[in-house]
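Quick one, tokens below. Sequence please?
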């Protein structure tokens, strides 16, 4: 890959429509700000209506040439995720999808869909959004410029154990372990989706942004000691622009043309954890996820 500063000269970014989830703070917002001067249209998804409004207003002011749109949705919920997908399909094109949304919940809870909420946000509903948007990503692509899906992963996936009862929630529930497991599932999906998309003009890759100074460790954490430790240690983490630059590299670098099913750490292609590339476990997870989301197990897509 080219150095970060060169990525912004990428021809891929020019005149594209890109959707970013978790775009009202942290790495997602910094990614949106980084690519705003180059893309044609940005679709931003956020959880908080006031933040979404403030963020889109900011982009209107700072990037008057940009076609900017925002939507508020709780991506823990399948109904809200479906609404985001329907909204995104009202735009004529989609060239890039950045599944950046992520959360760490220190308390176990099931969503109204009956799925443990951290697993729902960090994995299950990312599958839903990606699958529903896939036909539009395909129809917006051509062989010279495939559409690109980016999964914001984490080194944490390499510390996960084989998946067991994550859909229902681990027992006992441990926030960090659930985070690792959700990132492993997301990595398995990346590898499996890339395999199924082979020969089609859509790529999917994952990256770890590295330790980055954001609020992810404190937003949904009630334990004052954990909050204090995260706040203290995150002072030594990289600023959001550094984490976002790694997302932008994988999304936009011209050298990513044709690369699919890859994982990047510190901007260098690295192996996924062996568990993420186990074909039997990946197929089992794929099938169960499709069944729970009432999606067909086979991709319904064809080249434009
Ligand atoms: N920070 C790190 O050190 C680090 C390291 C490795 C990987 N990552 C990954 O990087 C990605 C971005 O995280 P971050 O560090 O930038 O944290 P962040 O600032 O908390 O960003 C997460 C984003 O997701 C949104 N979000 C959370 N739950 C949501 C929900 N239920 N529905 C809709 N949106 C929701 C948040 O909305 P609000 O703006 O309303 O809070 C926020 O915009 C995540 O996938 C994370 O796992 C981060």
């Amino acid at each position: 890959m080219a150095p970060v500063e060169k990525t912004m000269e990428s021809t891929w970014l020019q005149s594209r429509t890109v959707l970013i989830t978790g775009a009202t703070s942290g790495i997602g917002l910094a990614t949106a700000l980084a690519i705003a001067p180059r893309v044609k249209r940005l679709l931003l998804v956020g959880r908080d209506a006031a933040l979404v409004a403030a963020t889109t207003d900011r982009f209107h002011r700072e990037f008057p040439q940009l076609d900017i749109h925002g939507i508020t949705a709780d991506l823990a919920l399948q109904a809200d995720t479906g609404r985001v997908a329907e909204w995104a399909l009202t735009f004529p094109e989609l060239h890039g999808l950045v599944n950046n949304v992520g959360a760490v919940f220190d308390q176990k809870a099931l969503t109204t869909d009956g799925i443990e909420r951290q697993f729902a946000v960090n994995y299950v509903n990312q599958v839903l959004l990606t699958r529903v948007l896939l036909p539009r990503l395909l129809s917006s692509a051509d062989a010279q410029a495939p559409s690109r899906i980016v999964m914001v992963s984490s080194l944490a996936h390499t510390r996960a154990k084989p998946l067991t009862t994550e859909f229902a929630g681990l027992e006992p529930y441990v926030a960090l372990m659930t985070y690792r497991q959700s990132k492993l599932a997301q990595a398995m999906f990346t590898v499996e989706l890339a395999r199924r998309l082979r020969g089609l003009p859509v790529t999917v890759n994952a990256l770890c942004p590295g330790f980055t100074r954001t609020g992810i460790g404190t937003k949904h954490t009630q334990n004052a000691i954990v909050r204090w430790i995260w706040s203290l240690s995150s002072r030594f983490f990289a600023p959001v622009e550094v984490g976002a630059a790694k997302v932008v590299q994988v999304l936009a670098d011209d050298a990513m043309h044709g690369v699919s099913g890859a994982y990047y750490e510190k901007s260098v292609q690295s192996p996924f954890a062996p568990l993420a590339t186990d074909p039997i476990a990946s197929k089992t997870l794929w099938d169960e996820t499709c069944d729970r989301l009432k999606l067909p197990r086979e991709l319904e897509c064809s080249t434009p």
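The first helix runs from residue 4 to 7. The pocket of NAP is lined by residues 22, 24-28, 46-48, 51, 73-76, 100-103, 121, 152, 154, 208-209, 211-212, 214-216, 219, 237 (CB under 6 Å).
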